[in-house]
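agent> Task received from the user: take the single chain below, predict its 3D structure, and emit structure tokens. No templates, no multimer pairing.
agent> Plan: (1) validate residues, (2) run structure prediction, (3) serialize to tokens, (4) report one or two observations.
agent> Step 1 OK, no nonstandard residues flagged.
tool_call: predict_structure(input=
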Amino acid sequence: MGFVKSQNSIFFLVLLILVEFSWSDDTTNFIYKGCANQRFQDPTGVYSQNLKTLFTALISQSTSAKFYKTTSGQGQSAISGLFQCRGDLSNADCNRCVSNAHQLFDKMCGPAVAARIHLSGCYMRYEISGFKLAGATDLLYKVCGATRVRGSGFDQKLGSALGQVEKGVTGGTGFYTGVYENVYVLGQCEGDLVGGDCVECVQSAEQKAKSDCGDYVSGQIFLQQCYVTYSYRPDGVPGTLPSERSKGKGSGQNTQKTVAIVVGGLVGSGLFIACLLVLKSAFKKKREVKY
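)
tool_result: status=success, residues=291
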């Protein structure tokens, strides 16, 4: 009887962990923050009021737009800011992501004169008048997968897959996601970075991905005004159609819904549970970069 209870407990534990882990691609997952070292000198409260007004405007616009940029206040006390949602998000998901990002600024950056919060589905940033921003192609944050790809030929696959991103963002939306030979890729430019400037930024991100993460199963490269991510699944990308996997060609569309990369095949083992717990802990680790 005790053995049956033990089995049931393990079953429900595995089920709960799987449910939580399957949402690891939730659009509000934290990726990184960037906080300026300088703090507001705000004896009159004008900066605080302008920042509050700015956030209100950004959150309001996120119900109907994927990108919005504005300024609150005038002169030296003015504060500019923007949000950028992933191109495949619905209006409701965009608003939810932006709202969640807004709630993290005070907690993670305090009264910084400039700050940036990047979640998996969107990012927001603001800066006071006169604050010097990084260049469009300056690296803000990167992370490579935990394991390397075995066997030859992956560099060619990755290069071709990333090349699809470069072609895709030229379509006018500045966003692309797709699959090429089991390499899932995603790239996006900031809303006001268009045409050749967008392509140039994505090219810089792609080169960084290949040079720094090129022999790893995944990579994420975030520049000031664009980012590129990839993930390689030798056995196929979960969520894609078998016909797409068998073609071995790019199958992405600019508005293709992002697929979650989930772990499978070891559900019944204690090792799998331990791995999930380790991964869960790793996802919670705070990541910080300079603004």
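agent> Step 4: summary for the user.
Helices lie at 2-22, 46-61, 91-109, 154-168, 195-213, 242-247, 270-283.
agent> Done.
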